[in-house]
Predict the 3D structure of the following.
Amino acid sequence: MLTKSGLGLAIAGLALAVLGVWWQYEELVVVAVAALIAIVIALWTSRIGHQARIVRMLPAPRVARGDPIRVIYRARNDTRRRTAAATIVDRCDAAEVRIDIPAIARDDRLEVVGVIPTRRRGVFPVGPWRLERVDALGLALGSRPSDEVGTVLVHPRVHNLQGPYGTMHTVEDEAMIRRVASDPLSGFVSLREYVEGDDPRLIHWPTSARMGTLMIREHVELRRPEFTVVLDAAAHVASEDDFEEMVDVAASVAVHALRSGVDVRLRTTAREFPGSARPLERNTQVLDLLTPVQQVPATALTSLPEIFRSGLDQTAIVFVTGPLGPSSTFSHTDRLSVIRVGKGAEAGRGVTLAVDDALEFVRKWKPWF
């Protein structure tokens, strides 16, 4: 295949040949023939096979969105002559990179590293790559394809969140739920006067005798807190770029809750990607659940009342939506925190926090929390 320079030389040679014949200038014809010979030699030399054996490796098959994919190419020349310099062309998710391979001496080897940028979540094939070689004059390009294809998982980016008193202050401290309980085995808090309807088993008789009135023991039940992070997957609430930021926010909140020892569930409003109704145990579960999630039309949505039709119990809900969201709501607003994420997101009635992207959410998390 001719390069731009080679194509230009071919056109110029053809024009010189026509003019030389027309004007009967032998010099122009000679120049045209020389150009043709140069092009033929360039095509021949560029197609000579590269003798080095090249192996590609993906050291990290999982990367965060926005982080580059690191690729290692190991080339070995087992022949008795020096190989020519070449270029490896690799691709992933419409991103194409070029990595130069210098000439390799005989019985020698080398290792080069390339990086491929990432812009969205998903499971993507890496490759197939091809080896390109341009002749010495830069007139022709030869290519040797490879059938080697790898796979990389691009998961959401998790941002480190801090509580109002630093990283050591956990979500659990803020979310602990204290409930009055009649169970004598629950935590004792204080004594109070007996009220009709109280359980007689809780009467503290020594204190009642001393005070001259019935006194009962008041207990509270300390329940382990729960968070349910819900991602709004409605296509009409956010653009594709804003949705990627929404997923990063949802992942960051869920992972922060896990690191803080809080039971966390992860749900979405997309029927195709329902999430997990059970508490998660590992950060990788959060990433794996959110990696394939895509926006869906209104006909494929699940509303908040449908998600929590079995009840709320002690769950606190963080609903991550786009600038035009939320796509649904329900009456339990005391349990619901709505976070709008995306360009132009504005706070409004029922909206706890509005940010342009995940980085702004990280900055506003501390004072909001």
